[in-house]
Amino acid sequence: MKTAFYSTHKFERDFLLQAAGDQHDLVLLEPTLSLSTAPLAAGCEAVCIFVNDDGSAPVLEKLAAVGVKYIALRSAGFNHVDIQAAHALGMRISRVPEYSPYAVAEHTVALILALNRKLVRAHNRIRDLNFSLDGLTGFDLHGKTVGIIGMGKIGKIVGRIMRGFGCQIMAFDRYPDHEWAKVYDATYVSIDELCRESDIISLHAPLTQATEYIINKHSIAKMKKGVMLINTSRGRLINTLDVTEGLKSGQIGYLGLDVYEEERGLFFEDHSSDIVQDDVISRLITFANVLITSHQAFLTDTALKNIAATTMYNLDCFVKGEKGVNELG
Fold this sequence. Notes:
Elements: E1 2-5, H1 10-20, E2 25-28, E3 46-49, H2 57-65, E4 70-73, H3 83-88, E5 92-94, H4 101-116, H5 119-127, E6 145-149, H6 153-164, E7 168-172, H7 178-183, E8 186-188, H8 191-197, E9 200-203, H9 217-222, E10 227-231, H10 240-249, E11 252-257, H11 279-284, E12 290-292, H12 301-320, E13 327-328
Parallel strand pairs: 1-2, 1-3, 3-4, 4-5, 6-7, 6-9, 7-8, 9-10, 10-11, 11-12
Antiparallel strand pairs: 5-13
Helix pairs in contact: 1-12, 4-6
């Protein structure tokens, strides 16, 4: 089957081609899916899209008009696709619900360690032959309280790792797993208590109406002064303007982001020769206590291999006329 892969990056091409073998005809496209690029899928029964592609109703209508019947997501999240509109157009949709929760969890902990021990600043000093330790003081993780919002597979792995450092774990989730909490000596609490008591807060929740901007000026005001805030989940879990004010006031002492609410058109691309028009992220990167990575938490060879393999399985199911386990709706 001929499938148009939008937002194809160099880091994933070989994994996709190897997983496809001679079973699928992949049209690897660098542009993101949008109203203007949808016609590139002409002649394809399916499209495969990534996290920052536009799956809104108008774009889906254009895809349907050129004969697309199936949408395969190379991601777990699907908030960028209008599922109802797709089904109304007769399109089927699948996703990759899991690729490597360890990849994201380990990147989360890397952000925590790098921010705490000021590794980027220290590295830059050494490159300038500045071996001073002034301004590089961190804190012991042992004994600190880590609050985890969203206790799915990734959140639980983060909890296990931080428990290994000797941290106390507080958790918030709509569906508490008390058996897990008992094993790892964690405590499920309200979001307010988590904000009040945590030294480090890490976000691992899906983006829903209930979780959008769960971190805002009101929740920030309840946090300990100097709290560390980490988001490797979804950009719109935090109100970035409110977080920026929290950084300016010192209420937030450290910020680690792998996602950003306005990352579409920015992340995954080389803008080193451009003047960035986003004033918010331009302000954020001026803070010495902010560390931003470009949605790379998933980026391990294991995850890429699993994403490719699951995507091909999903396409196989469509070709065979079967409803796969990863199909939505």
